[in-house]
Amino acid sequence: MGYSFSRSIYHNHAPALNLIVSFCSICSLYVFLNNVKKKKFQKFFDCLIYIILINFVFLINTRMAVFCSILGSLFITIYKYKFSFTAKRIFFITTLISIFVVLFINFFPYIIQKYTTVSFRNLDKIGRLDDFENPEGEIYNSLVTRLSIWRSAINLSKRNLCVGVGASDGKRKLFEYYYETDQMFLFKYKFPVHNQYLDYLVKFGIIGLILLILYMIIPFYIGCKIHNSLIIYYSLSFIVSNMTDDFLIRFDGTVYSCIFISLFGYLYVSNQDKYLIKR
Fold first, then answer.
1. CB atoms within 10 A of CB 253
2. For the chain, what percentages of helix, strand and coil (3-state, to nearest 5) are there?
3. What is the pTM of this model?
4. What is the rounded distance in angstroms from the CA atom of residue 176 to the CA atom of residue 24?
5. How many CA atoms lie within 13 A of 186 on its CB side?
6. Side-chain half-sphere exposure of 229, counting CA atoms within 13 A
7. What is the Cα–Cα distance from 117 to 128, expressed in whole angstroms?
8. What is the pLDDT of residues 216-267, one digit of tens each?
9. Quick one: which of 137, 140, 205, 271 is 20 to 30 A from 232 by CA?
10. Would you list the DSSP string of 55-73?
């Protein structure tokens, strides 16, 4: 349902849409927790925005965005109150999270099946997807399919480990490898890598992978330097999300990352004098 909802909005890619919605939800939580001078109505409005956005994340229901949103909510809250946690506050937060999870599962019971049997079954069939009588119906979007793709990408990258096969030949070479290794299900549907790190490893080799990792950790470095939990969360969520998708081969993913890294970089550079004085 979540994927159909995403496609109905100008044919959006569900993981890309959910990545942005997930970050927006954490931004709203960050605003709610850190703007202490606001009136009660404004605080209530900020909290309401967070609840609405986090429900959209669960509605679109891509696994990695849900995972990042839950951990992000906990991380932002713990970072904010790391020196002032009381038993009462811990109980209150735990109760709210429990109520939300129970209500959501009650409305969408399939989520339990999706995150248990659907995701993790048939892992003994990695690289042998053609053994299934009906792979389209049984394992099209499952973890075993993703792992089979990743194993193929790793094996292909070993042939051109230093500089890769090139940006224009990455997908074509991967599809040829499917055919060469008699993985007809993967070849039929031309599955891309769906992992930014392996995608760069295939296209640009070890050199490209190292440069990609450096690009990914820039906002994490900035967030740690200026002690900003929202920037740290952004970096961690983008690093983790690209393990199951390849956002930097998409225009929206490239723009999303460049805009925020530029904003974080400006924030860091414009505050250099303050940090130098503190030292």
1. 22
2. 80, 0, 20
3. 0.86
4. 39
5. 33
6. 19
7. 19
8. 999 999 999 999 999 999 999 999 999 999 999 989 899 999 999 999 999 9
9. 205
10. HHHHHH--HHHHHHHHHHH
CA distances to 29, 100, 119, 158 from 54, rounded to whole Å, are: 10, 10, 22, 41
Q: Extract the tokens encoding 274.
A: 């303050």
User: Cα separation of 78 and 101, whole Å?
Assistant: 19
Q: Two tokens at 62?
A: 């891509």
